[in-house]
C-alpha cells in the first residue's frame, strides 16, 4: 500500500521533470479536454437532469407539513445539487467514463509497446501522455459540473411544476432564497480536486499495465473503483476542512 | 560500432542475461539469434535504455550510454530508430502522422514543408507512397512493419534496432522485409541490430551474427562461418528446422531437391 502510494507520487513527479515543449503539451491538452468534454456531455446532462428531478419529487414527498412554505423545496434542491450532487455525482459518472478511457488507452499503449516507442525516441512519456490528460480533466470537470448544476436545477423545476408539487413562482423563489456564492466556489474546488484524482489514478493504473488485453480490462476496472473511492474520501476531507 | 560489455540482468531472482559481451558493427546487419525466451528482447531493451542492466555497460561509437548523464543519453537516443515486434504504431495517428511524429518531436526547427518531403521520401523508400492517409488498423502485418521502418529511419538514425521483424509474416513477406532492412542498412551505413530466430534471415542478411542461449553468448561470426560452427547448441538450433531435416533425409537417400532459387541441392 505504502509502496503503491510511493510509486504513484514518483509517477506524478516524473511528469514534471524533463518536460516536452509547451506548445506541444498545450495542443495535446486541448485535444484531451475537447475529447473528454464531448464524450461526456451527454451522459452528464442526462444524469444531472434526472437527479434534479428526483431530488425535487422526493423532497416534495417528504415535506408534508403545511407550515413549511413550498418554496423550501426549490431551496433544498438548489442546496443539495450545488453543494453535493452536481460535483460529486458528476465526478463519479466521469470516473466511469473518463477514468476507464484513460486507463484503457494508456494500458493499450503500454502492452502494444507504443509507450516504449516514445521512450526510445527520447520523449518523456509521462510528460507527453499523462500531463495533458490530467490538465485536460482539470479544465473540463468544472465546466461539466457547472452544466450539471444548471441542468439539475432545471430538472427539478420541470419535475416540480409538471407534477404539480409546487408552482413555478414558488420554485424560483426558493432557488433565489438565501443564496451563498461561496457554495459555487466550493463545488468548483471539489470538481478540480476530483478531476485530478480521477485522471491521475487512472493514468497510473493504465501506465503500469503488464500483460495483455485481459490486463488492460482489469486496469480499467481498478482505475474506476479506486477513483470512486478517492472521490468519496476526498469529498469528506474537503467538506470537513473547507465548510 | 555498439559495444556491449558484460551485461547482466535479473528479474527478481531469475537471471535472464548472464554476462553478455559482444559488438555490433557499423554499416552492417548484426543479427542476434536464439530460441524463444533466451533473453533477446531483454538484451535489446537494455541496449536502447528501456531497461537498465544490473551490471555491465553499453557504448555507442565510443560514448558510454549506460548510467551516463541524461543529456548525453538523450543525444544518443535521438540517433536510435527502433522497429518493435508488434510494430507499435501510434494507433490514433494515420501513417503519415506516424512517420512525421519523431521529426516533429526531435527536430523542431524543421519547417512543415521539409517534414512533408522527408515523410514522403521515407514512405516511398519503404514502398508505401500511397498509404499516407490510412490508419494503422487498416494495414496488413507487412505494411505495419514497413511503416515502422519508415518511422524509425525518418530522423536519419545512426542505429536501427529491429525486434523480430519477421514475426507474424508469411515467408515471402518476411524475405521482402529482410531485404528492405538490409538495403537501408547498407545504403545509409546504419548500424543495424536485428533480433531473430529465423535461419532464413541469417542466410539472407546476416553480416554478423551473435548467438544467444539461456542468457549467454555462445558464438559469434559471419553467415559463412555459421554452418561450420562447432557449438552444439547452435548446431541443434540450425538443424532443428524440419525443412533442413527433410532435405538431409533426401540427401542421405541420395536424392536431389530442385528449386527455382539458386542451384539445386545435390545429394552425393
Ligand atoms: N519485464 C519482465 N519482467 C519479468 N520477466 C521478464 C520481463 N521481460 C522478460 N522477462 C522474462 O525474460 C525471459 C526472456 O524474455 P525475452 O527477452 O522476451 O525472450 P526472447 O528471447 O524470446 O525475446 C523470459 O523468460 C521472460 O519471461
Ligand atoms: Mg522477443
From TrEMBL, chain A:
The keyword Nucleus does not apply. The keyword Membrane applies. Signal peptide: none annotated. Keywords: Membrane, Transmembrane, Transmembrane helix. It comes from the Bacteria. GO terms for molecular function: phospholipid transporter activity. GO terms for cellular component: ATP-binding cassette (ABC) transporter complex. The chain crosses the membrane at residues 40-61, 82-103, 134-159, 180-203, 223-242. This is ABC transporter permease.
TrEMBL record, chain B:
It comes from the Bacteria. The keyword Transport applies. One of its GO terms (molecular function) is ATP hydrolysis activity. It holds the Pfam family ABC_tran. Residues 2-239 form the ABC transporter domain. The keyword Nucleotide-binding applies. Keywords: ATP-binding, Nucleotide-binding, Transport. This is ABC transporter ATP-binding protein.
Amino acid at each position: 500500500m505504502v509502496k503503491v502510494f510511493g510509486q504513484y507520487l514518483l509517477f506524478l513527479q516524473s511528469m514534471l521533470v524533463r518536460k516536452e515543449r509547451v506548445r506541444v503539451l498545450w495542443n495535446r491538452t486541448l485535444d484531451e479536454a475537447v475529447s473528454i468534454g464531448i464524450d461526456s456531455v451527454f451522459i452528464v446532462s442526462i444524469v444531472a437532469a434526472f437527479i434534479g428531478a428526483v431530488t425535487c419529487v422526493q423532497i416534495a414527498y417528504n415535506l408534508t407539513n403545511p407550515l413549511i412554505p413550498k418554496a423550501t423545496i426549490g431551496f433544498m434542491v438548489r442546496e443539495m445539487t450545488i453543494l453535493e450532487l452536481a460535483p460529486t455525482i458528476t465526478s463519479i459518472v466521469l470516473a466511469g467514463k473518463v477514468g476507464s478511457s484513460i486507463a484503457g488507452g494508456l494500458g493499450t499503449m503500454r502492452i502494444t509497446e507504443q509507450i516504449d516507442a516514445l521512450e526510445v525516441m527520447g520523449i518523456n512519456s509521462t510528460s507527453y501522455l499523462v500531463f495533458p490528460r490530467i490538465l485536460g480533466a482539470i479544465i473540463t470537470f468544472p465546466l461539466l459540473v457547472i452544466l450539471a448544476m444548471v441542468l439539475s436545477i432545471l430538472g427539478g423545476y420541470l419535475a416540480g411544476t409538471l407534477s404539480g408539487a409546487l408552482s413555478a413562482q414558488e420554485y424560483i423563489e426558493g432557488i433565489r432564497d438565501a443564496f451563498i456564492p461561496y457554495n459555487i466556489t466550493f463545488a468548483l474546488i471539489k470538481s478540480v480536486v476530483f478531476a485530478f484524482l480521477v485522471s491521475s489514478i487512472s493514468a497510473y493504473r493504465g501506465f503500469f499495465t503488464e500483460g495483455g488485453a485481459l490486463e488492460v480490462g482489469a486496469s480499467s476496472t481498478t482505475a474506476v473503483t479506486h477513483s470512486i473511492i478517492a472521490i468519496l474520501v476526498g469529498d469528506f476531507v474537503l467538506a470537513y476542512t473547507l465548510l | 560500432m555498439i559495444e556491449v560489455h558484460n551485461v547482466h540482468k535479473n528479474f527478481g531472482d531469475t537471471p535472464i542475461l548472464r554476462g553478455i559481451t559482444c559488438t555490433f558493427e557499423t554499416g552492417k546487419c548484426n543479427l542476434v539469434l536464439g530460441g524463444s525466451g533466451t533473453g533477446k528482447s531483454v538484451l535489446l531493451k537494455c541496449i536502447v535504455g528501456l531497461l537498465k542492466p544490473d551490471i555491465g555497460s553499453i557504448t555507442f561509437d565510443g560514448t558510454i550510454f549506460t548510467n551516463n548523464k541524461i543529456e548525453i543519453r538523450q543525444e544518443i537516443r535521438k540517433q536510435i530508430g527502433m522497429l518493435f515486434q508488434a510494430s507499435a504504431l501510434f494507433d490514433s495517428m494515420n501513417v503519415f502522422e506516424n512517420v512525421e511524429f519523431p521529426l516533429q518531436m526531435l527536430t523542431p526547427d524543421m519547417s512543415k514543408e521539409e517534414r512533408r518531403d522527408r515523410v514522403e521520401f521515407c514512405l516511398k523508400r519503404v514502398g508505401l507512397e500511397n498509404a499516407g492517409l490510412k490508419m494503422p488498423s487498416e494495414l496488413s502485418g507487412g505494411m505495419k512493419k514497413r511503416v515502422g521502418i519508415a518511422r524509425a529511419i525518418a530522423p536519419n538514425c545512426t542505429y536501427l534496432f529491429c525486434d523480430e521483424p519477421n514475426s507474424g509474416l508469411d515467408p515471402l513477406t518476411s524475405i521482402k522485409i529482410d531485404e528492405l532492412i538490409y538495403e537501408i542498412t547498407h545504403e545509409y551505413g546504419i548500424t543495424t541490430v536485428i533480433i531473430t530466430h529465423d535461419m532464413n534471415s541469417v542466410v539472407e542478411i546476416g553480416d554478423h551474427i551473435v548467438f544467444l542461449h539461456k542468457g549467454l553468448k555462445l558464438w559469434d561470426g559471419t553467415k559463412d562461418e555459421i554452418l561450420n560452427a562447432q557449438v552444439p547448441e547452435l548446431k541443434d538450433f540450425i538443424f532443428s528446422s524440419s525443412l533442413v531435416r527433410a532435405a538431409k533425409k533426401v540427401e542421405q537417400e541420395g536424392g536431389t531437391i530442385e528449386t527455382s532459387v539458386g542451384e539445386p541441392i545435390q545429394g552425393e
